[in-house]
Specification:
502 residues; alpha/beta; six-stranded mixed beta sheet; 18 helices; globular; Sugar ABC transporter ATP-binding protein; ATP-binding; nucleotide-binding
């Protein structure tokens, strides 16, 4: 079978640094070919070469057996290549139909836009993707991430794409939306479309992929049929070593209660929440998107202060009306979106780490750069941050190393209570293992950790206890020994099912 796309010996360098070194890759009709590797492995560069964003320095690209060179993305689109980026490239003020047919809208006989035909074709494409609920005249800016993603896929199909590249397509999706996306991908596969699927989430790879190719440090490691590999063997291919434990949870002595919530509420998002968190404990909070998990964290940290109930630290009631007050009480918060909320990405590693302790590092109004640099070097060593040094910009780091910088920033403030919201979202499997090991070590040192995660294996693997939230309330508390995918999953959906029945 002739591949839809075949790359042979592809190499690419930026500013003298080789990011791809003689990489081979191909996509066949009607297959999902997963492209895996740690951050910095070269995945993004490879898919951008396929999509015409970058030109390869060496190697050959063949489309349907014919050698081609793309000077720009438009040429790749004409050749049947479409890419759905993690950051969706849509215009929020335009309608669904306008976004789908942007730059290739149907025309009337006299050259104007044929609005009726555009709406009809948009409707047909969305219906084919089982997206009957979407109104083609709705402005895209009012839609959810999942629905916007469907529009990107419809846009690709409207241009007769034979190969669709999906870059971390489920990174921002709720579980129900993930399942719907998988259904769409299977429909595309049945139609003979080739899918390049880039993701850190191994369960999705095993659920969808026919073959998998692994890159490491810009080098081609190998291509395997999905039936020939296991999760452990894939991890070893990606990181170059065996990771025996993705969730290296170790027992830690559980101490006294450091944080307690009694009937805490904030609007409709946090409703009558009561919980305790002890020194040395990792308390996991599970729940569907919108269940109130992150909102509870924001209330504890003073970003959205409690409107009812009591928060206690060391058994004493406290008022937390701002993050500064939370920090002064020994609470730290590693947010869900590290890029927007956790880091000042243009600033250096040292400048980011010092943000919570500037008063300690300053002489009057001037920061002691020597102390700041020393602090950063200490955390780079302690947390294993892979960087050129304290002066490197945070935006230049991989996702896992950026997360370590956010963690270092808060550990510099010497907290006793650490809230971690989606601690390993969007980072590769090797970095996940390192973050989990750090969490376990911090708990052993007496830190109390409140962990919010949408990844059920992470909740089950790292938690001493699991709280399940639904509709802004805690609906279940499950001991580690009793926590299974079935027990936690049932608690996550039970209230929703009851409300739907009512």
């Amino acid at each position: 079978m002739t591949p839809l796309v075949e790359l042979t010996g592809i190499s690419k360098s930026f500013v003298g640094v080789k990011v791809l070194d003689h990489v081979d890759f191909d996509v066949r009709p009607g297959e999902v070919h997963a492209l895996l590797g740690e951050n910095g492995a070269g995945k993004s560069t490879l898919i951008k070469i396929i999509a015409g964003v970058h030109a390869a320095d060496e190697g050959e690209i063949r489309i349907g057996g014919e050698a081609m060179k793309f000077a720009n993305p438009g040429q790749a689109v004409k050749a049947g290549i479409a890419i759905v980026y993690q950051e969706l490239l849509l215009f929020p003020e335009l309608s669904v139909a306008e976004n789908i047919f942007l730059n290739h809208a149907p025309r009337t006989g006299w050259g104007g836009l044929d609005w009726a035909e555009m709406r009809r074709k948009a409707r047909a494409l969305l219906d084919d993707l089982e997206s009957h609920h979407l109104d083609v005249d709705t402005k895209v800016g009012s839609l959810s991430v999942a629905n916007r993603q469907r529009i990107e896929i419809a846009k690709a199909l409207s241009q007769n794409a034979r190969v669709v590249i999906m870059d971390e397509p489920t990174a921002s999706l709720a579980e129900g939306d993930v399942q719907q996306l998988m259904t769409i991908i299977r429909r595309l596969r049945e139609r003979g479309v080739g899918i390049v699927y880039v993701s850190h989430k191994l369960p999705e790879i095993f659920a969808l992929a026919d073959r998998v190719t692994v890159l490491r440090d810009g080098h081609y490691v190998g291509t395997k049929d999905i039936k020939e590999v296991t999760e452990r063997s894939l991890v070893a291919m990606m990181v170059g070593r065996s990771i025996d434990q993705l969730f290296p949870k170790e027992d830690a002595p559980i101490g006294k209660v450091l944080l307690e919530l009694r009937g805490v509420s904030h609007g409709k998002q946090v409703r009558d929440v009561s919980l305790t968190l002890r020194a040395g404990e990792i308390l996991g909070i599970a729940g569907l998107v919108g269940s109130g998990r992150t909102e509870t964290a924001l209330t504890i940290f003073g970003i959205t202060p409690a409107t009812a109930g009591t928060i206690l630290i060391d058994g004493k009631p406290v008022q937390i009306s701002s993050p500064q007050q939370a920090r002064d009480l020994g609470i730290a918060y590693v947010p869900e979106d590290r890029g927007l909320q956790g880091l000042v990405r243009p600033q250096t590693i040292a400048e980011n780490i010092s943000l919570t302790v500037l008063k300690k590092l300053a002489r009057g109004f001037i920061v002691d750069r020597g102390k700041e640099d020393s602090l950063a070097r200490d955390f780079i060593k302690r947390l294993g941050i892979r960087a050129r040094g304290p002066g490197q910009a945070a935006r230049q780091l991989s996702g896992g190393n950026q997360q370590k910088v956010v963690l270092a920033k808060w550990l510099a403030a010497e907290p006793r209570i650490l809230i971690m919201d989606e601690p390993t979202r969007g980072i590769d499997v090797g970095a996940k293992s390192e973050i989990h090991a750090l969490m376990s070590k911090l708990a052993q040192n007496g830190l109390a950790i409140l962990m919010i995660s949408s990844e059920l294996p992470e909740v089950l693997g790292m938690s001493d206890r699991v709280l399940v939230m639904n509709g802004g309330r805690i609906v279940a508390e499950i001991a580690r020994k009793d926590a299974t995918p079935e027990t936690v999953g049932a608690a996550m959906t039970l209230v929703q099912e009851r409300e739907a029945a009512a």
